[in-house]
Specification:
The protein is α+β, with helices and mostly antiparallel strands. Helices cover 29% and strands 29% of the residues. The strands form 7 sheets. Strands 1, 2, 7, 8, 9, 10, 18 and 19 form an 8-stranded mixed β-sheet that branches. It has a 5-stranded antiparallel β-sheet with strand order 13-14-15-12-16, covered by helices on one side. A hairpin with a 2-residue loop joins strand 13 and strand 14 (209-214). The protein binds flavin-adenine dinucleotide.
Length: 493
């Protein structure tokens, strides 16, 4: 056993969520160590969709480009067709000033990009290092790390489990979960189709189940089976091309010739959510906190949003810039979001039960989704755009708790956008003019960037505190209201 390594935050697991969180902490200069079992990123096919709210968050760090000034009208929206429960009946809509509503990108590419950002910011990333045990008390959290034949301890002020579905951190911290059993068995395969021209493309539904087939006549096609007739074998049960071929033929109703499997893996709609995202010095994010089926392509997005929510809070608490209670809001804000995603994936799986007795229900849902309001409701759920952290209290601004749109702002320093002001991941107070409120806010300037607006349009509030994750913490109309808000969120001046 070698000598203990000491760090401020230890992240266990360097998938996309761990890497994003590491970069967020690095931006704030928090001493951060990340351990990851794998020695390099694997190119296995997993998530491929960054939904609208994730794209909007990435825009606020400068990871995606903003539309050029004046290029997009603030009221203009962009529409993208999507699916719900296998039905191509949904239209996702997002403001054009936020960039594209959906960004197609392989998970491996996202992971490599985020790892490079985290390394640039000085995070100590240790690949080939596996966390094997955890002990946490009031003073510190300690993780035993295995590296080759060696084991060594890391002592950290906080440990974040970003270590995926079978999280060692969740288990060792004794955090209980709530789960729902699988109702279908899925196989994800990358194969060469021998007759791509005759193969159905997109979602296929028969009385035997559902398939998603992304035909690529020039290379590997992606097949996902959703088999409601067979019990789910264990995730690690042996899997070969013959099983994929047999399942595909049964669901599609005829042979689909294929060979050269590049990847084969199992999935299902088993769901689990940790009952607590925080236990003292231990926190959970991403698949370590929640798992569900890939329906709607939401898992990666949900995890990245956990990291955006947790990153700035943990940074401020770890550096003494905010009270410890700020960290509790991570659970209270993100756990309900996880529950809502799990519920909508289960609703989709229920809708997909293949028998004809479900057809009238499917027809009804398809009809409902052809109307603007229900479509908007479901599309905002799937794309993460309906997330808000505090329902507006009576008398408060309708902005409170909501994601601040990327509106153009006329500031005393010149034209800015909301997204541009959030690149440094610091809280931003948008305050009208140079009067009493701006003067009061100066006392928090070590923790909060104060930006003076030439006019309260288009926000409509005298002072608006935008959190680093883009959500409005509070709005204030008076000096005392502003001071109360700043004290609650960031401690005394
Ligand atoms: C087959 C498949 C298809 C999917 N399709 C989609 C999709 O279409 N859309 C979507 O949004 N999501 C999809 N998902 C889900 C998505 O891939 C996950 O939600 C996402 O990977 C979660 O990221 P994460 O960083 O939380 O966990 P992971 O990506 O699982 O990363 C966890 C990391 O922790 C490491 N680790 C684990 N234990 C330890 C330890 N003890 N010590 C050190 N390191 C450790 C692992 O090596 C791993 O790199 C799919 C998942 C699968 C399996």
């Amino acid at each position: 056993m070698t000598e203990a390594h000491r760090t401020g935050v230890l992240i266990v697991g360097g998938g996309p969520v761990g890497m994003l969180l590491a970069g967020e902490l690095g931006l704030h200069g928090v001493r951060t160590t990340l351990i990851e079992t794998l020695t390099e990123t694997h190119d296995e096919p997993r998530a491929g969709t960054l939904h609208a709210r994730t794209a909007q968050s990435l825009l606020r760090r400068g990871y995606l480009a903003e539309p050029a000034p004046g290029e997009r009208d603030p009221d203009e929206t962009v529409l993208v067709p999507f699916h719900f429960g296998g039905m191509s009946a949904l239209t996702i809509e997002a403001p054009a000033i936020e960039g594209p509503p959906i960004v197609g990108q392989s998970q491996a590419a996202v992971e490599r990009f985020l790892e490079a950002r985290a390394r640039d910011r000085g995070v100590d990333i240790r690949r080939g290092h596996e966390g094997v045990a955890l002990r946490a008390d009031a003073d510190a959290a300690r993780v035993t790390v295995r590296h080759g034949d060696d084991e060594y301890p890391i002592r950290a002020d906080y440990v974040v489990g970003c270590d995926g579905a079978r999280s060692m951190v969740r288990r060792e911290a004794g955090i209980p979960s709530t789960s729902h059993p699988a109702t279908f068995a899925g196989i994800l395969g990358l194969v060469r189709l021998l007759d791509p021209a005759s193969c159905p493309n997109g979602w296929v539904h028969t009385d035997q189940g559902w398939m998603l087939i992304n035909v690529n006549p020039l290379g590997q096609s992606r097949l996902l089976t959703h088999d409601f007739t067979h019990p789910l074998p264990g995730r690690d049960a042996p899997l070969d091309l013959a099983e994929l071929q047999e399942t595909t033929a049964r669901i599609v109703g005829r042979e689909v010739p294929m060979d050269q499997p590049g990847f084969l893996g199992r999935f299902s709609d088993f769901c689990r959510i940790a009952d607590r995202y925080r236990a003292g010095r231990v926190l959970l994010a991403g698949d370590a906190a929640h798992v569900h089926s890939p329906l709607g392509g939401q898992g990666l997005n949900l995890g990245l949003q956990d990291a955006f929510n947790l990153g700035w809070k943990l940074a401020m608490v770890a550096t003494g810039s905010a009270p410890d209670s700020l960290l509790d809001t991570y659970h209270t804000e993100r756990h309900p979001v996880g529950e809502r995603v799990i519920a909508n994936t289960r609703a989709q799986a229920a809708l997909m039960r293949p028998g004809p007795e479900q057809d009238p229900l499917r027809d009804l849902v398809r009809d409902l989704l052809s109307f603007d309001e229900p479509n908007r409701y479901v599309a905002d759920l799937i794309s993460g755009q309906s997330v808000a952290y505090r329902p507006a209290a009576p008398g408060s601004s309708t902005l409170d708790g909501h994601f601040l749109p990327n509106v153009p702002l006329e500031t005393t320093e010149g034209p800015r956008t909301v997204a541009g002001l959030l690149h440094a991941a610091r809280p931003v107070l948008l305050v009208n003019g140079d009067g009493d409120l701006a003067e009061a806010a100066r006392k928090w300037q070590d923790r909060v960037d104060v930006v003076r607006l030439r006019t309260s349009e288009p926000l409509g509030a005298a002072a608006t505190l935008c959190r680093p994750d883009g959500y409005v913490a509070f709005t204030a109309a008076t000096r005392s209201g502003l001071e109360d808000g700043l004290t609650t969120w960031f401690g005394p001046a």
